[in-house]
Amino acid sequence: MGTCMICELRRTAADVRGVGWTSQHGPDGAVSWICPTCTRAQLWQIEAGLPLDEIRPRATRHAA
Ligand SMILES: [Zn+2]
User: Fold this and answer.
1) Interatomic CA distance for residues 60 and 37, integer angstroms
2) Which string of DSSP letters, residue by residue, matches the chain?
3) Is residue 8 part of a domain?
4) How many structural domains does the chain have?
5) Cα–Cα distances in Å, from 40 out to 6, 23, 24, 63?
6) Which residues surround ligand 1, an ion (CB under 5 A)?
7) CA–CA gap between residue 47 and residue 37 (Å, rounded)
8) What percentage of residues in the chain have a pLDDT greater than 70?
9) Mean pLDDT of 32-61
10) In the prediction, which pLDDT does 22 show?
11) pLDDT per residue over 10-36, tens digit each?
12) In a domain, 36, yes or no
C-alpha cells in the first residue's frame, strides 16, 4: 500500500479508504503517496505545482 514519500509513514488499509492521503504521479507513471500530516505541511508547494523532487530530494532515492 506504500508509505509516505516524505516521512515514510506506512499507509494502512484504513488510510486507503480515507481521503487524507495525497497521490502524486511521477513522470514515469509511478504513484507516490503523501500522508495527511505531510500533505498539510507541503500543500502550498504541491498546489504550486513544484516537482516533489524539490520538496524532498531523498524521496526519490528508491523510486519504483
Ligand atoms: Zn508523511
Assistant:
1) 19
2) --BBTTT-PBPPHHHHHSS--EEEE-TTS-EEEE-HHHHHHHHHHHHTT--HHHH-GGGGTT--
3) no
4) 1
5) 12, 13, 14, 23
6) 4, 6-7, 9, 35, 38
7) 15
8) 73
9) 74
10) 85
11) 988 877 776 788 888 888 988 888 898
12) yes
**38, amino acid identity:** C
The C-alpha cell at 40 is 498539510
Task: Report the alpha-carbon distance of residue 30 to residue 48 in Å, rounded.
Answer: 20
CA dihedral 37, 48, 62, 38 (to 10 degrees): 0
Whole-number Å distance, alpha carbon 55 to ligand 1 midpoint, is: 12
Tell me whether residue 47 is in a domain: yes
Mean pLDDT rounded to a whole number for the chain: 78
Q: Which of 58, 54, 31 is nearest to 44 (CA)?
A: 54
Ligand 1 centroid – CA 9 distance (Å): 6
